[in-house]
Amino acid sequence: VLSGLALALALALPSVALENGLARTPPMGWMSWERFRCNVDCQADPRNCISEQLFFEMADRLAEDGWRELGYEYINIDDCWSAKQRDAAGQLVPDPKRFPSGIKALADYVHARGLKLGIYGDLGIFTCGGYPGTMLEHVKQDAQTFAAWGVDMLKLDGCYSSAEEQAKGYPEMARALNATGRPIVYSCSWPAYQGGLPPKVNYTILAEICNLWRNYDDIQDSWESVLSIVDWFFTNQDVLQPAAGPGHWNDPDMLIIGNFGLSYEQSRSQMALWTVMAAPLLMSTDLRTISPSAKEILQNRLMIQINQDPLGIQGRRIVKEKSHIEVFLRPLSQAASALVFFSRRTDMPFRYTTSLAKLHFPEDAVYEVQDVYVGKIVGALKTADNFSVVINPSGVVMWYLRPMALPLQLWHVARQQAPGEGSRPALL
After folding, report:
1. Radius of gyration of the CA atoms of the chain, in A
2. CA-CA-CA-CA torsion sign (283, 288, 291, 292)
3. DSSP letter at 126?
4. Which residue range forms the structural domain that includes residue 294?
5. pTM to 2 decimals?
6. Do residues 282 and 255 make contact, with C-beta atoms less than 8 angstroms apart?
7. Does 12 map to a domain?
8. Any idea which of 20-29, 107-116, 256-265, 404-413 has the lowest mean pLDDT?
9. Cα 210 from Cα 249, distance rounded (Å)
């Protein structure tokens, strides 16, 4: 018992330290992994290999194509950036052929465009791709290296490490990053390596150590993969939902919109469901060749406003119908809400009829409804009114609801009620 308690106390140590003031809303940006993986063959495939050129070009696209202004500010390097060995001083070094200018020069380039640079490490002997990992004795040194380079976010993976090493190393890296004095958002993969659920994962402690964390499997470029993530997150929402909030987010992994595996409807669904989950919006796609329709989904202003809502409450699935329609609700600031009607059907568009009363909105309230994708505003929907939405197969209809009139006592509740309490999810 004592050793378990000692471990818990050790894990709790950085609780004061990590409140680093960062990631008050879910981080947004671009990440290399899902689309470009560990392609290091720059001779055969110079345009798509993991090299400084790829990151220079993606930084240009974020800065010039309207992404940065919407909040997409991080350019994140994933695995396979480093040389195969540390240098004589034990320091991580970038691959000299693929990153000849060095990471500091890349960070400077990114910062000059009003963007931020993220980098990848792994708490273990090797990274998942077989590059040098960060053993416990290197945690402090690597944190200092990243800070000296001007890095703004660190994703710390967990391949080739034991549960004990992770229990020591993840909190230690939080302390080491803070000790550098440089603001570095800290993304950890710790829960994903421990099955993502209690008792192995303590989300209270995790939220004191990391700004965001990967809970579950890597996303792949397929609808099946998106659905498996959605299923896991919402099946376990009672555990996961309370863990998220300003400065500490569940991360269901990258947005694959704009790649090869999702249809138009499925792309809209991923964006809506990630937004309802208060997920980081980290795109992994080729911004040089992205289609207008994928870009339109990812640059939807109202969607991003909802994702970045300052209350930072993660949404929940509130209805699961036999008709394979599901309804998700995310409470927002100023007593507003986001509703997502999602169809798992594979046959034809489905007309779904319900009312806000059935979705536990407060009685006698009136809402202005805006369709997030269409943009159209439907005025004055009363809680008791029945309404219908037509949802395409594997698609969504997403609404943003602003209260036009609320019973007076509920305005008070709306300001004070804590997440997960009471029977009025619209006001959480």
Report:
1. 22
2. positive
3. B
4. 28-308
5. 0.93
6. yes
7. no
8. 404-413
9. 8
> Which of 122, 188, 194, 187 lies closest to 160 in space, CA to CA?
122
103 touches 119 (CB < 8 A):
yes
CA atoms of 284 and 5, how far apart (whole Å): 40
Assign residue 53 the CATH number of its domain: 3.20.20.70
Residue-level pLDDT at 93: 98
Residue 373 has pLDDT above 90, yes or no: yes
Does a cis peptide bond (omega within 30 degrees of 0) precede residue 100? no
- The CA angle 342-344-345, to the nearest 5 degrees, is 120
pLDDT, one tens digit per residue, over 353-371 is: 999 999 999 999 999 999 9
- The answer to whether residue 78 is domain-embedded is yes
Catalytic residues: 157, 218
pLDDT single digits (tens) 217-250: 999 999 999 999 999 999 999 999 999 999 999 9
Token readout for 69 is 């202004």
Rounded distance between C-alpha atoms, residue 204 and residue 335, angstroms? 26
**What tokens were used for 9?**
């106390």
For residues 189 and 248, state if they share a domain: yes
Question: CB under 8 Å to 324, separation ≥6 — which residues?
Answer: 343, 344, 345
Q: Is 294 helix (H, G, I), strand (E, B) or coil?
A: helix
Q: Are residues 264 and 327 in the same domain?
A: no
Dist CA 383 CA 380 (whole Å): 10
pLDDT of residue 229: 98
Same domain assignment for residues 302 and 329: no
Q: What total of structural domains would you count in the chain?
A: 2
pLDDT given for residue 379 in this prediction:
81
